[in-house]
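Input.
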Amino acid sequence: MVAIRRAVRVTGVVQGVGFRPYVYALARELDLSGHVGNDVHGVFIEVQGDGVEEFLARLPADAPPLSVIEDITVAEVEPQVESGFRIVESAGSQSGEVTSIPPDTAVCEDCLRELRDPDDRRFGYPFIACTNCGPRYTMVTGLPYDRANTSMADFPLCAACEAEYTDPGSRRYHAQPTACWECGPQLSMPVAAVVAALNQGQIVAIKGIGGYHLACDGLDSEAVDRLRRRKQRGDKPFAVMVADVSAAERIAVLDSASRELLASPARPVLLLPSRDAGLQGHVAPGNSFIGVMLAYTPLHHLLFDAGAPAVLVMTSGNVSDEPICIDVQESQMRLGAIADVFCHHDRVIQVACDDSVFRVIGEVPQPVRRSRGYTPSPISLPRSCPPMIAVGGEIKATAAVASGRRAWLTGHIGDVENLETLQMLERSVGVLADLERVMPEAVVSDAHPGYMSRTWAARYATDNGIDHIEIQHHHAHLASLMAEHGVDEPVLGMVFDGTGYGVDGTIWGGEILLGGYDGVQRVGHLKPVSLPGGDAAVRFPSRVALAHLFAAGVDPNGTAAAQSTDLRLVQQMLRTGSHCTPTTSMGRLFDAVASLLDVRQAVDYEAQAAIELEALAVGAADPWTAQVEWDGDDLVIDPAGWIRAAVDSHRRLVPVAWAARAFHAGVAQAVVVAACAVRDREGVGTVGLTGGVFANAVLTRDCVAGLTAAGFKVLVHRIVPPNDGGLALGQVMVAGAGS
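Output.
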């Protein structure tokens, strides 16, 4: 009988996840000969013997839990005379598609058992890891993914770790972060000293996987307030960390979807309804949700095991509006005025990666910030695109590297409004492009002339002799939503956000777009109002409210907005048009209603007024109505009805919760009416909900329910955020379509 031999190529996230030892064990179980190895493209395998067909059937079905198989190709090759199956050395290459680096994941249960076992040689070791867990992306310096190409190259293995690392039967076979007390990274201070500082109400800067956290006792209001002042954070919510799901249940309301996401290997911050009003009041004031994450590094578990406060504020190690710190010298310099104590370690962080943030809307997890645990997992594209990089927008920036049918997004970079954050964007793009061997033929940015990221993109294009492509903000939003769903047909996009540069030079943000990657038609929008002070009005909902009152012809006297700003000055600006910018922004409309209901007149952070308005929108209420009608080929949503209803409700002392709920229901009603009107003219049957306004769970649920009942297929975000953190993916798709 002639022997069967097959050459197998596996691509995807298949390095650093135990794929080679898995293949080795499967081949030996089936008594096959051959070999398996890594190269920059993924995993290559040759198998020979009677069990080859069973091997091929089981290969994807039983793959390691952290692996993501994108493709398996099989070719017939000549049989060889050999015995046994072996793992061969990794091979390098400079051309063709490359494999993807796995994201950083939470410590696994097997490592936790060893961490807590006094008889284990890694008992209490803060950097315990194996093939199934630990840092990956944040410590990689190159491909293939081997120890020499990671930060662990600085830590030669001891004899015991070397034996595990070279044993195909070990859980630590070629696990690059593997180490122990004798040969691995070390903390700068004992765990007990960190716990003592936290219990004494001190603020501790803790170096983690992708950067520093600033930590304090979440139940100590004085410590939290001190951290808030030092970090210059205003009322912006803090995330908290607890030991496990049961601890999370004591401070927040969880359902089955929330429990699953909270305890997933990615361990994101999850926005959950709060159970503890006292904790909520100083951790996330004005909000009904609290951001909760579970301990995910060995050090986090050691802190809780050693008696750390049951609820820890765990916020990014930075001053507000600056990037997260990643090295010792930088942290001492930038966090010295914030932290009382520093807990460093000596493993280099190659690239910053902040915590991811999610919320569950209608049992569907939706990212608010896609970063640690997800970056740089590739996103499959519905169309092939040339090699390029995209830099996103300005707020909540995330960049992308793309080539062929895949895009890789950086971690959360932040608001690109200063040199430090711009430098982080540049470094993040550079690292990702190098890892994925992408030589860009174009660089893509938002079209806004004032964005630092656009200026950087233009300079990068000139310096490298490549094209600079500008993409309209809201077109990119719609394209990002379509791309993550793999859609390549016209979609009606409800693209609602705070600020986006329109093709007419005004501020857009309440857009109804019809089309796809190749182009969109603006078929409708929110009726524009004049924004006094332009973008500066973002900080003052009262000013936006006065603009809407003026446009609606409503007397502002006696309103909460009029009592909170210089009425005469703003009215003069509105009458003359001086220092006013037209806007169709739905985000600013939410600000205006929040002001008129006296929820918020000035903000400390982006979208604060809208977030607090959403928090109040509970129960059921009849929707406030607004006029939606065609003006020629323009479908215009006139918010005047909502503005009058808000003024009337506040004057009649209608409960704010009812009024807020009625407004949300009214916006959703207008979305359905608008979608039906466009369908009647254009025949489109799919509606996409995108833009930062659709991070609002109340509005999103109402829109999905109404549109579904009206017979539409509805797309919502589930892979990239609806806010500007998803823009880079859309920029790639639109730029690729035009190339």
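The mean pLDDT is 94.
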